[in-house]
């Protein structure tokens, strides 16, 4: 299939990753290293898909004043630039990588404001770029000024264009896109456990609780529900099937964008109409492969394939509910 994948990022970011020996709130820190990379969820997904050899267009809303790192990434990886430019600067998000805690603290800034005219320009760009049958990702937070139903609106447009929509968002924009009853629900959503809890409006402490909420979404009409569980792997639910996948990560370098790499793996598998087990293997392999890289990058394809072969899969029967 040569139809390009389109990723839509309405609130991209330049990620500034600051590496510290140990993060101690209230103390002065001397950084060990600082890195910048063009980011935002859809940009990260496009970057991983390009590494995997998938033709991809990255679109959404981008500040014209500091677009250079994005343009450099697109040129380096052969990603087509479908971004609508707004005047002003794309936000910088701060990621504090704590070597002692082996985790990352995110400080995501609000970013540019957008208005109805900006969303309309994105809608027009989708009409220009999307071919029937294309996979389109809507990902990340919404910029200030856009209504919470913006993803619901884009998802309806994409359904009318004959696209398959994958949605990775959170909070009110995710809830609004999942509340529609007109048959324009996304084909796939990938909440993490916390995002699914927000949607469900209650804690989901055990795997059976997570599975029940994912099945609920699936029954409402979302074709494939994937719940990422950090180091615990991920859950994949579609129709009467539910599969749990796990793969330990060896010496993770950065957890920023692991979820995005997982989404890239999902899309890579959907493009080939893979069965659920293969979807699980490839998306977990993408995520774990990315953990070994700084920035939204994948290692060589053979390394990813070797990881995919090592993923442990468990079939969850309906009685596991
Ligand atoms: N520490 C880890 N060890 C092994 N695998 C991990 C680890 N962290 C993440 N992963 C893998 O990455 C996938 C996505 O991670 P996670 O659930 O943290 O997504 P997320 O919250 O959307 O992340 P992000 O904020 O980076 O987008 C997990 O399902 C898992 O396969
Ligand atoms: O503020 P949002 O849009 O929810 O998330 C933005 C962000 O944290 O997501 C990516 C990691 O998934 C980063 O590149 C980026 O900084």
UniProtKB/TrEMBL annotation:
GO molecular function: 1-phosphofructokinase activity; ATP binding
GO cellular component, one term: cytosol
InterPro entries: 1-PFruKinase (IPR022463), Carboh/pur_kinase_PfkB_CS (IPR002173), PfkB_dom (IPR011611), Ribokinase-like (IPR029056), Tagatose/fructose_Pkinase (IPR017583)
Domain (Carbohydrate kinase PfkB) ranges: 9-299
Entry keywords, A to Z: ATP-binding, Kinase, Nucleotide-binding, Transferase
GO biological process, one term: small molecule metabolic process
Gene3D superfamilies, alphabetized: 3.40.1190.20
Catalyses which reaction(s): beta-D-fructose 1-phosphate + ATP = beta-D-fructose 1,6-bisphosphate + ADP + H(+)
Similarity field: Belongs to the carbohydrate kinase PfkB family.
NCBIfam families, A to Z: 1-PFK (TIGR03168), pfkB (TIGR03828)
Stated role: Catalyzes the ATP-dependent phosphorylation of fructose-l-phosphate to fructose-l,6-bisphosphate.
Annotated protein name in UniProt: Phosphofructokinase
Species, as recorded: Azospirillum doebereinerae
Highest classification ranks of the organism: Bacteria, Pseudomonadati, Pseudomonadota, Alphaproteobacteria, Rhodospirillales
């Amino acid at each position: 299939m040569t139809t390009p994948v389109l990723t839509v990022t309405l609130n991209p970011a330049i990620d500034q990753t600051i590496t510290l020996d140990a993060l101690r709130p209230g103390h002065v820190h001397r950084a060990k290293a600082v890195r910048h990379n063009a980011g935002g969820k859809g940009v990260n997904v496009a970057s991983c898909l390009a590494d995997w050899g998938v033709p991809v267009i990255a679109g959404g809303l981008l500040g014209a004043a500091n677009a250079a790192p994005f343009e450099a990434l697109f040129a380096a990886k052969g990603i087509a630039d479908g971004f609508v430019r707004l005047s002003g600067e794309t936000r910088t998000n701060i990621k504090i990588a704590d070597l002692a805690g082996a985790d990352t603290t995110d400080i995501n800034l609000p970013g540019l404001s957008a208005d109805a005219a900006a969303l309309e320009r994105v809608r027009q760009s989708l009409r220009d770029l999307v071919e029937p049958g294309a996979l389109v990702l809507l990902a990340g937070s919404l910029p200030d000024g856009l209504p919470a139903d913006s993803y619901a609106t884009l998802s309806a447009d994409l359904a009318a264009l004959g696209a398959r929509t994958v949605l990775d968002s959170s909070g009110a924009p995710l809830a609004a896109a999942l509340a529609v009853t007109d048959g324009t629900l996304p084909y796939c959503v990938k909440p993490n456990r916390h995002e699914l809890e927000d949607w469900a409006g209650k804690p989901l402490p055990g795997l059976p609780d997570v599975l029940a909420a994912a099945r609920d979404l699936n029954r409402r009409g979302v074709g494939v529900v994937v719940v990422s569980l950090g180091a615990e792997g991920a859950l994949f639910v579609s129709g009467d099937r539910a599969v749990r996948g796990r793969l330990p990560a060896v010496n993770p370098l950065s957890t920023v964008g692991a979820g995005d790499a997982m989404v890239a793996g999902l899309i890579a598998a959907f493009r080939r109409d893979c069965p659920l087990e293969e979807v699980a293997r490839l998306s977990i392999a993408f995520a774990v492969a990315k953990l070994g890289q700084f920035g939204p990058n994948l290692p060589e394809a053979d390394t990813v394939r070797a990881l995919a072969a090592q993923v442990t899969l468990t079939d969850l029967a309906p009685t596991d509910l």
